[in-house]
Amino acid sequence: MFEALGISGTSMNVHQTWMDAISDNIANINTVRPMNQEAFQARYVLAQAIEDGGTGSGVGVRSIEFSSPEGRIVYSPDHPMADAQGLVRLPDVDLGEQMTTMVMAQRGYQASVSNIYRVKACYDAAIAMGRA
Fold first, then answer.
1. Which stretches of 28-94 are DSSP H helices?
2. What span, in angstroms and rounded, lies between the C-alpha atoms of 117 and 106?
């Protein structure tokens, strides 16, 4: 039963990393850069199962990948960072996609927390039986 707490903890860590990346992506969705610089690169967290001799023992962050540094080129001649053609560079981040994945990450985190509460209830019941 003790493994359940550890597995839920690994899930919480991955979901927290995922939510941190998404919130950073959303916070920088309107970050403007001049054409001679790279656009803000959105982070995407990739998770993988942690194997322990053929049995699962949780999940971990396999890698964090980044979006294209090209971003989106937008015509905005009035912007102070615009080049001679009136172009600026924005990140290639879709707010709808980020909000959808944020909901999934939050729900995964909540499920892990709920599992920890259920495991705790089992521990409490086992201790109560041992006292009786």
1. none
2. 17
Convert the pLDDT of each residue in 38-93 to its tens digit. Answer: 999 999 999 999 887 767 789 999 999 999 999 999 999 999 999 999 999 999 99
Contact predicate 48/120, CB 8 Å: no
Give φ, ψ of 91 to 5 degrees: -70, 150
d(CA 29, CA 72): 11
Name residues whose C-beta falls within 8 Å of residue 122's C-beta, 6 or more positions apart in sequence.
Answer: 1
Answer for the pair 94, 70: CB distance below 8 angstroms, yes or no: no
CA distance 93 to 70: 12
Q: Using DSSP, state whether 88 is helix, strand or coil.
A: strand
What is the domain partition of the chain in residue ranges? 2-131
- Other beta carbons within 10 Å of 78: 6
What type of residue is 95? L
In this structure, which amino acid lies at residue 120?
K
